[in-house]
Design goal:
By secondary structure, this protein is of the alpha/beta class. The chain is 36% helix and 24% strand. It is built from twelve helices and 13 strands. The chain binds uridine 5'-triphosphate.
């Protein structure tokens, strides 16, 4: 079985839920304490054994490219000021992985964005980390997904149970239990943004999928789906109906950074861990809670 070394991060969406800021700053560059959201995705992939990462961007998102690059002038200025640890940290970020960028020239949906990754992926299975979904977990979720792929040899979708209201915004999966498995089920159908009554179960695909290259022919033949966009769920639905895919209820806490409250929650969680902010933030939260 081929080792999985490639990941794709679609990050070319319009980010309308994060307006007005997303008009000028890519939402993937909004900070969680002192690191941009996209850093956490790359870190998760790298910790899972991924070496090559393609980020799908658009013309307004060059800041991501700068973040994973090195600026010699900036580094020299830091070194001159004796800030050697900071300069080293920037180097570590630039060296994390081979990070590639490709622009999706028209915002035609997540399925269309993934279709752009065809020549990067070639003939290999690959991971997709949705650019909005940050997941904090003990074992990186990409690693959890790879483990399932290595056991069953078929595409894997990361899922979580969600509320009826969330189901109508995400997707719903038809799954069968597997003997001896707690968190892994076999998925034979799915629907994007089901209307009430159309749902199969309360399980939705959230943030991570592991796909095989057959998906590209399916994407090429897609018709526009929900919202007039080319939906990745529609491509995965065909895979689920024809050969089946595995669904992993992953371990980890997911934050939707495409939403204002998701960004704030992720900042509180990471702010309570960061040595420079945790004590101050704890004190502040204790005080503010008294007023709620
Ligand atoms: P979303 O629909 O959640 O993101 O797409 P969005 O369109 O940026 O957000 P809103 O709804 O307008 O606030 C899920 C993921 O797919 C990417 C997004 O960047 C996000 O990571 N995406 C979506 C693309 O890369 N290209 C697209 O055409 C659409």
């Amino acid at each position: 079985m081929k080792k999985i070394t490639k990941a794709v991060i679609p990050a070319a969406g319009l980010g309308t839920r994060m307006l007005p800021i997303s008009h000028a700053v890519p939402k993937e560059m909004l900070p969680i304490v002192d690191l941009p959201a996209v850093y956490y995705l790359v870190e998760e992939a790298v910790k899972s054994g991924i070496t090559d990462i393609l980020i799908i961007t658009n013309r307004d998102k060059d800041a991501m490219e700068s973040f994973f690059d090195l600026s010699i002038e900036y580094e020299n200025a830091l070194t001159a000021k004796g800030k050697l640890a900071e300069a080293k940290r920037l180097h570590e970020i630039a060296d994390m992985a081979n990070v590639f960028f490709l622009r999706q020239k028209e915002t035609k949906g997540l399925g269309h964005a993934i279709g752009r990754a065809c020549s990067f992926v070639g003939d290999e299975p690959f991971l997709v980390l949705y650019g909005d979904d940050i997941i904090f977990s003990k074992t990186p979720v990409c690693r959890q997904m790879i483990d399932v792929y290595e056991k069953y040899g078929k595409p894997v979708v990361g899922v979580k149970p969600v509320t009826p209201e969330q189901l109508t915004k995400y997707s719903s999966l038809k799954v069968d239990a597997l003997p001896g498995e707690d968190r892994v089920t076999f998925c034979t159908d799915m629907i994007e943004k089901p209307k009430p009554g159309e749902e199969f179960s309360n399980l939705s695909v959230l943030g991570r999928v592991l796909l095989t290259p057959e998906v590209f022919d399916i994407i090429d033949a897609l018709e526009p789906g929900a919202g007039g966009e080319y939906q990745l769920t529609d491509a995965m639905k065909k895979m689920a109906r024809e050969g089946g895919v595995y669904a992993l209820e992953f371990e980890g806490d997911r934050y939707d950074l495409g939403s204002k409250s998701g960004l704030l929650k992720a900042n509180i969680v990471k702010g309570l861990e960061h040595p420079e902010t945790r004590d101050d933030l704890k004190e502040f939260l204790r005080e503010i809670i008294k007023t709620l």
